[in-house]
Design brief:
The structure holds two protein chains of two kinds.
Chain A (H helix, E strand, L loop, with lengths): L2 H25 L4 H29 L6 H15 L2 E3 L4 E3 L5 H23 L4 H21 L1 H4 L5 E2 L3 H4 L4 H10 L3 H26 L1 H11 L1 H6 L4 H27 L9 H14 L6 H23 L5 H22 L17
Helix pairs in contact in A: 1-2, 1-14, 2-9, 2-12, 2-13, 2-14, 3-4, 3-5, 3-12, 4-12, 8-9, 9-12, 10-12, 13-14, 13-15, 14-15
Chain B lengths: L4 H25 L6 H16 L19 H29 L4 H23 L14 E3 L2 E3 L1 H23 L1 H11 L1 H6 L4 H26 L6 H16 L4 H17 L13 H15 L13
Classes of the chains: A mainly alpha, B mainly alpha.
Chain lengths: 354, 305
């Protein structure tokens, strides 16, 4: 693979991304900035999650279908460690850690959950790993829903956003006022994109390090890695923890974007969203999911028009239905016709495993 | 705990029939079919469409009114529709993928996309509400030591008979032997004159028909929902894995065991007030089985790492 070819792909992806953002302005003459902010916030958060998934699947070849649970562990641990209100009665907890301490513990908990799940599961072959991870994610969701005294159960967690919003710099308020944004969402959006930036820098360094090369060698040929005296299982576990930690961070951001947290957020469909973004952006790349995420969310945010074409007076269920329909079509068609996505390299795909 | 045994048997027979279908398909084609649940839902939705009274609007699309056929005929038609759907999937989707040497992992992801697509087609065009078959309500009666309605007892008996027939067909007919030959080795079986494309097509059709039957069972015992297949899919995986993935007899027993365990676990002391978590028990058992006895109860030892 020559570098000229890669940079052509990069320019093409940039062009498609820019065009899709332009499309938002074109289709929404009024209120485009507000729609764009909402879209970019979700794109940032899901993009970050997809970057984490790419460490699992793209780098190491681990078929993880329980990504939602890593996001969930990060979100729940972080929120529960801070002042919040939870449960049917909205029971208030006033004491707690400051935001950054809770965030670090939340990310750590997500990574630890990755390790716990990885320890046994990592020995399994691809398709078995897929079943185990999706089952583990469902167990997590069912337990969170059931342990109402701790997690708030189906009633969820509320009143936690101030922990994060009190750090909001003043320029965001001024800036948002001019453009008619919600300042709190603008702050979450900024945080998401700063997180992506830092994560990408970190991963770029890791990817070129001997460690990153060893990871990709695990994907290509585990036995060869063993023969070189590397511990393949430990490498896989490290990859699982790294990706889970990144997912945990994105889960926290998702919780702050929603403003209240319910267990229904972490259903398997969340994992499939992230999968669609990763495949669209390019499996095995670092920056691919960023482009994939923006394009994906432009498509998602404009599907409501399609829903209104299909059904007059479409209700919420129908709007959501059309969205998910499109996600399914996207996953299927990308996997059949362009499994390497926008930026991916076909040679780096681990899809022909028998 | 024992009062849940009847419910457990009923859930078990649904999972059991569906697990045999999934296991058969996996054995012959090596496809982990995440769209299996959608074929199950198709069985229920098609039956609803064929059997509901003419003036009853089951579908969002006002152009179609239900056909109002006899219930048994509706069920048979629905099973045929499922078989047709499975056959079409094989001919137009999975056969081309196989001919292009697309790997198993990619096919698995394709089935996930297919499952999301089809499920939301049901939501949009079939039924977004919870519906019931047009059958009269029945009172529960006590048989031996478990309670169920006479209709559900029939479901149980039909399920067991179907399983026995499937088992006999697989063991003693030419077709069953050919299926098992393709499962064991595609190349060797084609050398000995078995047309593996045909066998795989027949497997898809029969697996889908069994799945449709499981859907009719589920809808008769409970109700028809657009996402009914996805709700039960993980339990079906659990049943398949418990019995030993790829073995039909194992899937039968594994499915029954999972169904009974899910329902009986509601009665366990530490589960008091946590009935929502009953599915977690089955999934936990599945993970433990995969870790300590990955070949399941009846499976042959095979490298799965």
């Amino acid at each position: 693979m020559t570098s000229a070819k890669i940079s052509f792909r990069l320019i093409f992806s940039l062009f498609v991304t820019a065009f899709s953002i332009y499309l938002v302005f074109l289709l929404n003459p009024d209120g485009a900035p507000r729609i764009l902010l909402n879209l970019l916030t979700f794109a940032g958060i899901y993009g970050l999650s997809a970057i984490g998934l790419n460490v699992h699947f793209g780098w190491t070849g681990l078929l993880n279908f329980g990504h939602a649970s890593f996001m969930g562990v990060g979100a729940y641990v972080t929120l529960l460690l801070m002042p919040h209100a939870a449960g049917r009665e909205g029971e208030v907890t006033t004491t707690g850690l400051p935001f950054f301490a809770a965030l670090i513990l939340g990310i750590g908990a997500a990574a630890l959950f990755g390790l716990l799940l990885g320890l046994p599961a990592i020995r399994l072959r691809g398709d078995y790993l897929a079943i185990v991870t999706i089952a583990a994610a469902e167990i997590f969701r069912l337990l969170v829903r059931d342990l109402e005294s701790i997690t708030g159960g189906v009633y969820g967690i509320i009143n936690y956003t101030d922990n994060f919003q009190k750090y909001r710099p003043l320029f965001i308020d001024n800036f948002s006022e001019n453009l008619g944004f919600s300042p709190s969402q603008a702050w979450v959006c900024l945080a998401a994109w700063v997180s992506i930036f830092i994560t990408v820098l970190l991963l770029k360094r890791l990817s070129d390090s001997p460690w990153g090369r060893a990871l990709r060698a695990v994907r290509e040929d585990e036995d060869a890695v063993r023969a070189m005296g590397k511990n393949a299982v430990w490498l896989k576990l490290q990859s699982f923890m790294l990706g889970a930690g990144i997912a945990g961070l994105s889960g926290v951001l998702l919780a702050f974007n929603y403003g209240s947290l319910e267990t229904t957020v972490f259903i398997p469909l969340l994992t499939f969203y992230v999968w669609a973004i990763m495949i669209l952006g390019g499996v095995g790349t670092i920056t691919g999911p960023i482009f994939g995420s923006i394009i994906f969310w432009v498509i998602i945010s404009e599907t409501d028009r399609l829903a209104y074409l299909l059904f007059e007076n479409a209700n919420g269920q129908q709007l959501a239905g059309v969205r998910f329909l499109l996600v399914g079509v996207l996953i299927m068609f990308l996997m059949i016709f362009r499994p390497s996505g926008l930026l991916g390299k076909k040679e780096e795909l681990l899809l022909d495993v028998k | 705990m024992l009062d849940q045994l009847g419910n457990g048997l009923l859930l078990g027979i649904i999972i059991s029939v569906a697990s045999v279908a999934l296991s058969l398909l996996y054995g012959v084609t090596r496809i982990v079919n995440f769209a299996h649940g959608e074929i199950i839902a198709l069985g229920a939705i098609a039956t609803l469409f064929f059997s509901s009274p003419l003036d009853y609007r089951v579908l969002f699309l006002d152009k179609f009114s239900p056909l109002g056929l006899n219930f048994v005929i509706s069920c048979i038609l629905a099973i045929l529709v499922c078989g047709l759907f499975g056959g079409l999937l094989e001919v137009f989707l999975f056969r081309p993928l196989r001919k292009n040497d697309v790997g198993n992992i990619a096919v698995l992801v394709v089935t996930i996309g297919l499952s999301i697509l089809v499920r939301h087609l049901y939501l949009l065009f079939a039924t977004g509400r919870v519906q019931n078959f047009p059958l009269e309500l029945q009172r529960r009666q006590t048989y031996l030591f478990f309670d169920m309605t006479p209709r559900n007892l029939n479901v149980l008996i039909i399920g067991i008979i179907v399983m026995i027939i499937v088992g006999l067909l697989l063991t003693y007919t030419r077709l069953g032997k050919a299926m098992r030959a393709v499962r064991d080795s595609g190349e060797l079986s084609s050398v000995s004159g078995i047309n593996s494309d045909n066998i795989i097509l027949i497997t898809w059709v029969s697996s889908s028909m069994l799945a449709g039957l499981a859907g009719i069972f589920q809808a008769t015992i409970n109700d028809v929902r657009w996402n009914m297949g996805f709700l039960i899919l993980l339990l079906i995986f659990a049943g398949t894995v418990l019995g030993g993935i790829g073995t039909s007899f194992g899937a039968m027993v594994g499915g029954l065991l999972i169904g009974i365990m899910v329902q009986v676990s509601v009665g366990l002391p530490f589960m008091e007030g946590h009935s929502e978590a009953k599915n977690a028990v089955a999934l936990g058992i599945m993970i433990l089985i995969l870790l300590f006895r990955p070949q399941g109860i009846f499976g042959k030892k095979e490298r799965i790492s």
